[in-house]
Amino acid sequence: MLSVLCWTGMLASLLLVLNLWPRAMLAIAFVCFLSFVSAAQDFSGYQSDGMLLEAGFISVFFAPSGLRPGLGRPSPPSRASLFLLRWEWFRIYFESGVVKLLSGDPEWRHFTAMDEYYQNGPLPTWIGWYIQHFPHWFHAATAFATLSLELGLVWLLFLPRKWRIVCFFIVTSWQLGVILTANYTFLNYLVLVLGVLLLDDRFVLGIVSLRWRSRLLTGSALAEAISMRSKGWWAPLSQPWRIVKLTASSVILTWIFYATTAQMLGNAHLPISPVIALEPFRIANRYGLFAVMTRGRYEIEFQGSTDGQKWMAYPYRYKPQELNLPPRIYAPYQPRFDWNLWFASLGSWREYPIVPNTEVRLLTNDKDVLELFSENPFGREAPRQVRVLLWQYWFTTMSDKRATGMWWRRQLLGLYAPTLERAPDGKITIVEWPTAQPRE
């Protein structure tokens, strides 16, 4: 069933790109993704999922009506939906800046938050490896610029259009830098697209060639004329239906604005029942990225053995593991298994049952779990024991990389989770308990 949801959502997304019945395709994609997020549970607790659901739902009201609306001139977007999409863009930035201040993290106060940022994120990139080796003054300036952008620059949204255009070019350049230096799935791509709404038609017409400008203006005028001629004797009958739609959309969009504003203000002296009512749909969210910076990079490694002496590691598809392999760029794709293991490495195995559950399934060569790794080192014969090691990773220095060709260096911290053994009768027992100490 989950596969059907995914394929249906992807088909709806493709038809949306082809501009075929955009409102219906957005609604279908939203329902499919909401269903996936609800079913995925531990694999879908990310802020990026809420961002996409919120933007997708509001876009149903933003998109033009009709089966083939073309440029959508006869059905312009409501100002309320445009405002809410810009409002989401603003909140993603501003709330992220606020949580950095409220967290009390000394990394942000001392402008050291970016010193090891590029190596400690969930999935670094090879470009981030090089940026990591820039001098401290560069990282301090980047930390200051981050706070300035999130807490100050984004307020240009509410100023006249020329200031919004200036803001667009600054934040777009910023997002492109983030995309190249870190794999934050589709999060940055979504924020990048939302930022386009800071522009307007007048700006676009001013930068396209004369030939395209004529085609755009002619196409818009023709579409509007066709729309006017299509209004027949039934037009008066449609008026009540239009009033119903306008009323419903006004109520829904106002509700979302209230819920998001109440959350941003911390629900101070405001009724929270409207906020709670929207929580299952994740269309009115509170955001806040990097409130506290990760102070180390830790990696969980699953290993199996047939005799308890010789151990072989299960190689990951995306996470750093081999020291000589450069970190790659995967976004906007999100390998959710690898992401969850990054979060688990910062805590205890008791808090993240995904780790011991994976051990149990590796003991039986579970096909679905093995597909999460790049290969199965044991072939058809399942291992008798499985253990989980915890390593700390660092980027190598420039000189080390030139001398050895290694992108990473690492140090073993101990066993992260209990070592499990499968007896001949199929019973699974614990043969060794974790030894790794808690991380900072």
Radius of gyration: 26 Å
Strand order, largest beta sheet = 2-1-3-4-5
| Number of H- or I-type helical stretches | 18
Q: What is the chain-wise order of helices and strands?
A: HHHHHHHHHHHHHHEEHHHEHEE
How many strand units?
5
Class per helix and strand makeup: alpha+beta
* Strand residues, percent: 5-15%
Classify the helix fraction into a percent range.
Answer: 40-55%
Q: Give a short account of the largest sheet.
A: 5 strands, antiparallel
Coarse shape: globular
What does this structure look like?
α2 packs antiparallel against α3. The chain is globular and about 75 Å long. About 2% of the residues have low confidence. It is an alpha+beta fold. It has 18 helices and 5 strands.
A few lines on this structure:
The protein has 440 residues and is of the alpha+beta class. The chain is built from 18 helices and five strands.
Quickly list its features:
5 strands; single chain; 10% strand; 18 helices; alpha+beta; 5-stranded antiparallel beta sheet; 440 residues; globular
Question: Which SSEs are present, and which pair or pack?
Answer:
Elements: H1 2-17, H2 22-40, H3 47-62, H4 79-102, H5 106-109, H6 117-120, H7 126-132, H8 136-151, H9 161-181, H10 187-195, H11 201-207, H12 210-229, H13 235-264, H14 273-278, E1 297-305, E2 312-313, H15 336-345, H16 354-362, H17 367-370, E3 385-395, H18 398-404, E4 408-422, E5 428-432
